[in-house]
Structure formats: C-alpha cells, structure tokens
Amino acid sequence: MQIRVPKTKRAKRELDKRAPKLVENVKKTLILHGTKTSAVLNSVLTELYHLKRDNAVKFSKKNENIKPFESGGETSLEFFSHKTDCSLFAFGSHSKKRPNNLVLGRTYDHHIYDLVEVGVENFKSIESFEYDKKLAPKIGSKPLFAFIGEEFESVDELKHLKEVLLDFFRGEVVESLNLTGVDRVFVCTALSSKTILLMHCALRLKKSGTSIPRMELVEVGPSMDLVVRRHRLPSESLLKEAMKTPDHAKKIKNVTSDVIKGKTGRIYIPDQKVGDMPLSNNIKGLKRERREAKQNKESKKRKTESE
Amino acid sequence: MEGSSYQIDLGNLMAYDPNHHFQSIPSSRGELANHCLEKGTEMVQAIANSLFSLPSTESRDGPVVKLPLPTTKLPREKHLPKPKPPTKWEEFAKMKGIKKRKKNKRVWDEQTSSWKRTHGYDRANDDRDIPILDAKSTDEVGVDPFAKRSAEKKERVKKQEKNRLENLKKAAKAGALPSHIQLAATALPITGTKKDVPKKASKDELESVAGMAATSTASGGKFDKKLPGEKPPKHSGKHRKFLPVVEGKGIGSKEKQQTEKILNQLLSKSSHEILDVNKAVTMFNVKKEKQRKKDKDANPGKSGKLKPNKKSFKKTSTKKKP
Prior knowledge:
Strand order of the largest sheet of chain B: 1-2
Distance between the termini of chain A: 69 Å
Oligomer: heterodimer
Radius of gyration of chain B: 50 Å
Structural class of chain A: alpha/beta
Shape of chain A: elongated
Largest sheet of chain A: 9 strands, mixed
Distance between the termini of chain B: 153 Å
Number of strands of chain A: 13
Strand content of chain B: 5-15%
Strand content of chain A: 25-35%
Order of helices and strands of chain B: EEHEEHEEHEHHH
C-alpha cells in the first residue's frame, strides 16, 4: 500500500473543499444531454445553466450510455458526479416516445438518490420576454418560492417534484440575508395532478406606506409546463441516512458543561431516613465481653432469620 | 382562492398555498399566466411581510436580517464526517496520561549560537551537523559513527512511515480517511512466488524489442517515426558485400581480388608440397635468435677467459650443424 498525498497546497485545498463536512457547500448542478435533443430541450438546458451560473457545470458532448432509470445506465452519471463534485443533475433527451424529456436527479455520496422525469411543454425562453433590463435579477441571488396548488401535498409525484425544484434553485443556505438582494421568485402552479407551470419572475419593490415594501412581479425568465412522467423515490435506508442532521449529540443525563467550572455532574443520593436506621451494636461504652456477646447475638439472629 | 394562510418556510424563502385548486384551467395562456402571477404576488407579499418584520441590522449594503432555520428538510449531498479512530500513539498517550506540549517555532542552536527554526531547512540541532563525536567504550573499532547515526535515523524514519500507514489503514477501515490522502495498492502478483513478479524491462531489452518490431514491418523499419532519444538500430543489415555493378572495363580489380582469394584457397588445399619454404625459413631464424639470446643471458658479459664448453642438455638435435 502506498500513501498518496497531493504535492501542492492548492491541490490539497481543492480536495478539502470536496470532503464531507458538517455544514455543506452549495450543491452544484451537472447539465448534460443524451444522444438526441430537440431545439426546445437545448434552450431549456442552456437557460437552466444561465440561472445557475455560479454553481453549475454544462457538458456539451452527447452521452450515449446514460439511462438514468435503468440499473446499468447510471454509472456514467455517478462517475461524472464524482469528477465534477456535482450532487444535482439535469439530463435532457428527446425521443418519439418521450419528447423533450428532462430527468432531474440528486445524488448522495455520488450515488443516485432520487430521480424525477418530466416532459417540457409550452416552453418560452428568456429572450421572448420583454421587460425593463434594470429589473433583471442578479446571478446568484437567493430566490423566493411560491408553490400554488393542493396537489403538491396530495399527489406523490408533485410532492417529490416540489422537493426537487426547491433543492435545485435554492442556492446557498445562509444565516443572514441582505434585503435589497431579494430580486427573483419562482412561481410553480399545479395545473393538474401531473402538470405544473413553472415561471421565473423578477421582483420589484415599491414604496408603500409601511416599512414593508409592496411586491410586484415581472415575468422575466423561462416559463414552461412540466409534465411528470416517471419518478423514483429514494430507498428508506438511504433517505434516513441522507436526512441525518449533525446536531443531535447523545445527551448524557445529569452532566452539564459550564464555561467557568468546566464539566459538572450532579449526583442524587436517596433519602437516608436517619430516624429509622438501627443503631450499631458496637457500643464502645460496654465492656468487651458484653459488647462481643451483643455482636454475636445479632449475627446469630441474622443467620437463623436467613435460614 | 382564499388568501388566508400560507405555509411559509422563511429559511428557504418559500410559501405554499395548500388551499388552491383550479376548477377550470383558463383557456388562454395569457390568462393563466396572469392568474398565476396574481396568486404569486399575494404569496410573495406574505413572505415579504414576515421577512421585513424580522429584526434587521444596518450594514453598508443595506438592511441585513437573520433568517431562521429552514423547516423543510432536504437531503445532504455527502455523508456526515465520521470521527477518526485514535492513532496508536494517541491511545498510548491517553493511557499514560501524556499531554501535548506546545513546541516553539525557534530553538536555540548550540553549535552556531543562534536561534534557528525547529523543523525544516537549516534547523537547529540537526543530526547531520555534528562535527565531532566522542568515542565511547562501547564503540567498535572499524565502525563509522556518523554513518551509524544516519543509518539509525533512516531506520527510525522507516518505522515511522510504517506506523503512519497502519494508522491510515485503520482510519480507512473506519471510513474516516482524511480527505486529501489516498491509499493506493501497489501492484502485486497473483501467485505468491518471486518468479511471478513481472520483471521490469531493462533499457537494452526495450531497445532490442523495438528494433525487432521495426524490422518486422513491411519496409523493415526504415521509415518508422523515431521517438526523441531513440537510437538507430544496431544491425544495420549489411551481412554480405556485393561488388559494384560497374567498375571500369572488363574484369575490375575488386573482382580480381575476390577470384584470386578463392583460387588460392582451392589450390593450396590440393597442393602436394607440405612445406611452405618461406614459413620454414622464418621459423628457423626466429628460433636461432631466441637461442642466441638465451646463451647471452646465461653468460652475461664477454669474458676472455677460457670457458669450458657448456654442454646444453636440451634436445636441439635437428638444429645441430652436420
């Protein structure tokens, strides 16, 4: 066995960036397509890439052997995910049976976690919208989400799609947010039990009487109908493992850690009931013979009692 | 269509309306879009209401609010980091109660009487910089103490490397290998004997094999692209010498030499003269000279005295004059 260590500090930093951490990095997206794509699908993929510019990787070559829903066809995807360190992917393909097919998937530890296959219909690209260019949302800003429709709760596929879309467009999980930086919103409306309408709008904050500004939506980005075709939920064990949170350290009872005192513990002693305790037989005041006789009597008594 | 209560997840800036459903989808696309935008605006307003009412701090870019933790849980992308198992030294130190001591970056070097760094280039108290070693009674006579010290250091380094590898293997087994380290298996033969270890080809072997491969091509390797540093093949191929086609008129000198050589060989074999006269005369002369030299050596210097005839007991009968 040989130990292989990176020779430069830069390489070491890159490897450390990709290591599993308690608080994770932003999820990167891998955008690629199969052997056949349509014009619509090409523009969908490019616009998706534009929306996620900072943390997305777009492949331009055709990939023959990727079939996400088949057991053998996902090895390539897992390999790419490992190489580019991307945990989300969008795979586009076009065939007669499934026109304008888009498979949105997530990986866990660079293995396929779950997949949703949607068909893209009624696609309108960014160029077809006219709006004041000053309102254009900046790349990398945290979007707002609006999900409309009871189907997102009742129908399994749409519930899954909602989760996947949230994961895709969420961006970085931040603690503090600059309020001037909110300038985009994704509006997803459930049209039927299988279709949703996804719209990307810019936000315009208008002055209102109170400190809370009035919101105005201006449609800017791509708008498309997504028809859920197939989906694969993660297996139970994988789901459980992926949803583990780091906080819950095992709580030890009666132990606290104080900054000044350090680690402190509490001991509970049961009530002694001094009044009910028998007095000892080793009475020092008595002479030895009497004392010993008393002691032996007690022990004999105990012995006969136990028998 | 009630704008009553939406489920708001502020950590994700998300709003969900569970009470909406389309009785009939509006026929035109534009109407549908407008309807969705209206609903969207309401929900975004609801998010903004709760967002802007959070306590905000003023920074130079604008008001900054502290977002609460997201309520919708999303899966992680990688597994949780596993704790590293303690190394062999760490276990030993824990057992003995040895605590880590902080080392200084600069240490006083006795030899040069200056402050030098503890580790690295030009370090203090380096093993290699000791000029004089006192001889101890335990030292053997012919042993170089400096070489011994450097050999010991090499041994220590090797032992440390072995221990480090063991610790890393233990960590890898527990799934907690440090992210920048990879353990790579070196090539092992499938069977166990030394014979089966694939021997590395030497430079000569590679050259000869390359030459053989080249000559097996259709044009004998003459037009093969040579790599930089590749030497031309050794056996350039000329094992036979052919006479030039044209050389003067009639029979040329080279051809004459060739035929003469062959004829001489043929004729000498069939000749009946056993004695080669020239050769015999030269042999005789050489032997005479040798004899003369030997006599001179045996009797150094010319003496006028009468000397008895020395009778040589060596058999030189054929050379005696009749």
